[in-house]
Each structure stands twice: as structure tokens, then as C-alpha cells.
Amino acid sequence: MGLDDHLAFNHLGHCVSDLTRSRRFYEELLGFTFLYEIRPPDEPSSRLLRLPPPVGLHATYLRLGGLVLELLQFQRPDNPPGQLRAMNEPGLTHLSLAVDDIATLLARVADFGGEVLEDTNLGQAVMIRDPDGQLIEILPMAYRRKMAEQGF
Questions:
Q1: Cα gap 30→24, rounded to integer Å
Q2: pTM score
């Protein structure tokens, strides 16, 4: 038995303020595909997520390659506002995606509610933000191919 028999990646959760807008960004702009959605009951979700009821969770699962992204929207009063995080703050910092045509993607980001961080554009890498401010690093597909050739 290998390690995969005892431990496997499941998904990455991302809290969003507008599920419809975020689905459009990730599906139509970035090419994620819809898997399924759930609206779990407040209990036991309240206990698992350490949130007082009502939780009002609506979660949508999307896939891109081997990554499953769970978009979580909490339809409840008093949700905290989103905050822009700096790259050096502890915790998950960014997603990284490879695309065939960086310029074409960047030209469309604002149409889907995101932002291109122009000052980060190195030509071969650039950061964008999704509609809720999540950082996403955009790299050329050549980078991904090189990683694959090296066995990653």
C-alpha cells in the first residue's frame, strides 16, 4: 500500500460573497467545470465550521485538471467583509494556473469581475485577483509542460 491509500487530496475551499459571480469567473474565464452543489443543514455544519447558526451554506464544487475548488457562500447576516491579504501573511496565498495565451486571458479578466495587477506583469507571469480579491498567478502553458517533463 502506498501513501495514496492512506491520504489523498480532496478539495480546496474558497469563501466568496456572490456565488453566481464567482462561478462565472471560474467557469467562463478560467475553464473550471461544474461538478455539483450542496446546501447542507445548519447542524452539523455549525459545529464543523465553528459558526453559530444560521450557517446558510451553499457550496459549489468545480474542477480544473486534478484541482477541485469548493466555492462557499454563507447566506447569513453579519458575514465579515473580505480583506485583501499580502503574499507574506501566513495561510494559503494564491492559486497558480497555466494558460495557452496570457494576453487573451488578461484582456478578459475585468469583464468577469476580476482585476489584473498590472504592476506584477513579468511577461511570463502575472497576478490577477478574482471578484473577492483572491490572488491567482497566471503562467504560460510552457511552464506547466516543463514541470511535467521533470516529473511534477
A1: 9
A2: 0.91
Q: Which residues pair with 102 in a beta bridge?
A: none
Report whether 131 contacts 25 (CB < 8 A): yes
Residue with cell string 469548493: 70
Q: Which CATH number fits domain 94-152: 3.10.180.10, 3.30.2320.30, 1.20.120.920, 3.60.10.10?
A: 3.10.180.10
* H/E run at residue 142: helix 141-149
Contact 116, 128 (CB under 8 A): yes
Pairing type for strands 135-140 and 33-38 reads: unpaired
Tens digit of each residue's pLDDT (9 = 90 or more) over 82-117: 888 889 999 999 999 999 999 999 999 999 999 999
Give the CATH number of domain 1-77.
Answer: 3.10.180.10
**Cβ(18)–Cβ(75) below 8 Å:** no
Alpha-carbon span 104 to 46, nearest angstrom = 42
